[in-house]
Design a protein that fits this description.
The chain is of the alpha/beta class and 448 residues long. It is built from ten helices and 29 strands. The structure holds zinc ion (ZN).
Length: 448
């Protein structure tokens, strides 16, 4: 009863809001009295939190933000007018069109179309912009993209710092339809293990920038939930809001914006007392004690998909942890995913089920053996001996490159970095390129 009346009140507010604003695209919020802000979209159980314990800075100076900052599913939404009034740029609002000039950026934001244009190019916003209390709100990720800002996160001290990007980004355009295509998949990206510090997420974004700047499309096998039962750890970024988790989601958005393709690498990549990233999750190996039941498999698949939906992360493929999954369960995966990364097949396999097609893509060249010994000679040898027509596909744990990245901050806190050209990933990319291989996206492999 109570729940229903609450919903009615919310719907009423939404209707009123839409009439008042004359908008049908934007989100409208109302405080329901409990301090929680409800979102007008379908996720009525999710909460839009007001955030007031985080400091935002621009070029080292603290921003005085009087309007509320919101956090929803680990994405911040910031009041544009409030922030822009403190920056040395210009901000002009004309109806639903906003022109912003700041540093090297000169952009036009179209709130109704949820897009912005810079030069001749038009980009969609990741999250819908909206109005609340006379302010225009955009997500932090969109804000940083629109104005080409670098974002530096300090979760322990609750500070988020914006800087004008000092890096010269001149991305090479990917080569389309090459004769020797290759695939790279960044493996086991998760809010745990090596990805638990702001610095390492920054390094992840630097790896992503390196690939993007070199015109290399790539995939990322993302594990939605980190569980380590023996240490009592359970990090579910789809359900737990925190500054660090927001940094992780920001990094996922960053990956997508830089030609990365995200896939679901199981739900927790473990079962029972095993740790995420190390355990198996699906039945198929006698080495792991995983329930051999369709209902269990179904639940894990649903959980992974639901996490991506809650966080609004676009995913393209599925990859079973350690590729372990009984063949008889694959039809359940095929129903939900167009692409399954599985095993080390030499070629892309197209499987037709009625009207639905599933592409099986393997990583024949596999990976670098261990972090202590990220010796790439093994991979180079395999590449040299690759037969004609075999897909040059491998996977790589991006944290193997982190020791080759050094981040230094100046007095304002700008995170400059150096990235050794001898890093395992740099060497691999050179090896592939010297042998005439060209990295392509998964989507392109489907169409070949
Ligand atoms: Zn894995």
């Amino acid at each position: 009863m109570h729940k229903h009346s609450n919903r009615m009140v919310i719907l009423l507010f939404i209707a009123m809001g839409l009439i008042l604003l004359g908008l049908d695209y934007c989100f409208v919020f109302q405080d329901n009295g409990s301090g929680q802000i409800k979102l007008s979209q379908t996720l009525e159980s999710s909460q839009m939190e007001k955030v007031n314990d985080i400091q935002f800075t621009f070029e080292g100076t603290t921003l005085k933000i009087d309007a509320p900052i919101y956090l929803y599913a680990n994405r911040f939404f910031i009041p544009l007018e409030n922030v822009m009034s403190q920056l040395q740029g210009s901000y002009n609002k004309n109806g639903n069109s906003i022109t912003i000039i700041l540093g090297k950026s000169n952009v036009n934001l179209d709130i109704l179309k949820n897009s912005y244009s810079s030069g001749n190019q038009v980009f969609l916003l990741k999250k819908n912009a909206f109005y609340s209390d006379g302010m225009t709100y955009v997500s932090l990720f969109d804000f940083s993209r629109i104005l080409d800002l670098k974002v530096s996160w300090d979760s322990p001290n609750k500070v988020v710092s914006f800087f004008e990007n000092r890096e010269e980004v001149k991305a090479k355009a990917p080569i389309v339809n090459p004769t020797k295509p290759a695939l790279i998949r960044l493996e086991d990206f998760i809010a745990g293990y090596r990805y638990t510090t702001d610095e390492n997420l920054e390094k992840m974004r630097i790896v992503v920038d390196y690939l993007y700047n070199n015109g290399i499309p790539f995939s990322v096998a993302w594990i939605p939930r980190y569980v380590d039962p023996l240490k009592g750890l359970d990090v579910d970024i789809a359900k737990q809001n925190s500054l660090f988790n927001a940094n992780f989601v920001y990094t996922l958005d960053y990956i997508t914006a830089k030609n990365g393709t995200i896939g679901l690498h199981g739900y927790t990549h473990q079962y029972g007392n095993t740790r995420s990233g190390s355990g198996a999750e699906f039945p198929g190996s006698p080495n792991y004690n995983v329930p051999n039941k369709p209902k269990y498999v179904q639940e894990r698949l649903e959980n992974a998909i639901e996490s991506a939906h809650r966080l609004d992360i676009d995913y393209t493929f599925f990859e079973a942890p350690h590729y372990i999954i009984k063949p008889e369960y694959l039809h359940m995966v095929e129903k939900r995913f167009d692409i399954i990364y599985q095993g080390n097949a030499k070629k892309v396999i197209k499987k037709r089920n009625g009207n639905h097609i599933t592409w099986y893509i393997g990583a024949y060249l596999e990976f670098i053996p261990s972090e202590e010994d990220a010796d790439i000679s093994h991979l180079r040898k395999r590449l040299d001996n690759l037969e004609d027509g075999v897909l040059a596909s491998f996977f790589f744990h991006p944290c193997f490159d982190f020791d080759d990245i050094v981040i230094t901050k100046d007095s304002k806190g700008y995170p400059a970095y150096t990235y050794s050209e001898d890093s395992p990933l740099h060497q691999i990319v050179r090896d592939f390129s010297e042998r005439g291989y060209v990295f392509v996206s998964l989507e392109e492999m489907k169409n070949r």
